[in-house]
Amino acid sequence: MGRGGDKDRPLRVVSLLGAASEVVAALGLERLLVGRSHECKFPPSVRALPCVSSPALGPDLEQQSCATVHDRLSERVRRGLSRYHVDVEAIRRLQPDVIITQDACDVCAVTVSDLEAACTEYFKQRDDAGSACHVVSLRPITVSDVWENMLQIAEAVGHTEEGCALVQALQARWSLVRQQVPLRGAPPRVVCVQWLQPVMGAGYWVPEIVACAGGESHSGKPGDRTAMLSLEALLSLDPDVIVVMCCGLPVEAILKNLLTCEDLPQWNRLRAVQTDAVFVADGDRYFNNSGPTIVDSAEIMLEILHARRFQQHRTPSDRTDAAAAAAGDAGVADTSASLPCSNGLVGGEGTESPKIEVKHEGRAYIQLTGGRVEAWHACDRRPRD
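Above: the chain sequence. Below: its structure as tokens.
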């Protein structure tokens, strides 16, 4: 890979995928990042980097309903238009040696096709100058792919050994989750909702997260694409637990969209609604994120599914000695302590009977009472202790 003709200067990396930025940071190499996509938000320090992309639908998606976003995206697909804009001039100014992107989903993040369409001439100029820009395209579909992608990133930035140590540390934590699953009783039947209006079930690696935590996914199989799931189909499945984890939306925006469901007869007849087993999770930060927080997601799911045994989402101090040693020996950043999470939401002031029950304040999800949303305030995001 080229370095603009100067092999002594540090590698320059632009990340077009939030998970990739988190992996680079977890490797202890955040200093290599010189640019990011609009979706790269963690660790918080990366937000100060120049942004080289933007959503074609505008910056206010969180303020729009799920139905509106879906309709607008569908129209762009019908017209053969890209969902994202890539700022080639910003990339030209940054002169990256490595650009990390993905081709697993053309809805959730900038794709390699978006990048190539915008930067064809720029890449040719770099090639002609003998300083080719190395494009790393990730394809996270399953958990195995997630581990492999981390190794790809580490190799691309010249730190293969650190990448192996990071993956080993994360896999140790993943195994610990499996070991803590209660052996007695049937596994809870779980539906993970990745979008509302229309309802879509979560696929890709999310069913593996559910299985790791001792649940049985009824919204998709490992590696499945996101699929439509009507309320009638959801009622037919009648899962024990529903976890709403909308891609691209914070918890408070998900709650606003859930307001459209709470008075529907199908919604109120669901077993999970009637037994207070509807949860709203920060899907962007966790479950839909193919970075190091995939393990946090399994830990969160373990707590959701087996709340009586796990009263609090474990902190980094609870990790196994083996996992901590694996990370420490290789000089790899702690994959949990350095990454922030959401505080729970609480009922608004003046509400006589708030419908949002905060079971685990300071963590990454909330639990609804009766499947209803009545009052909330914005999440207070802070780093873990």
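The mean pLDDT is 80.
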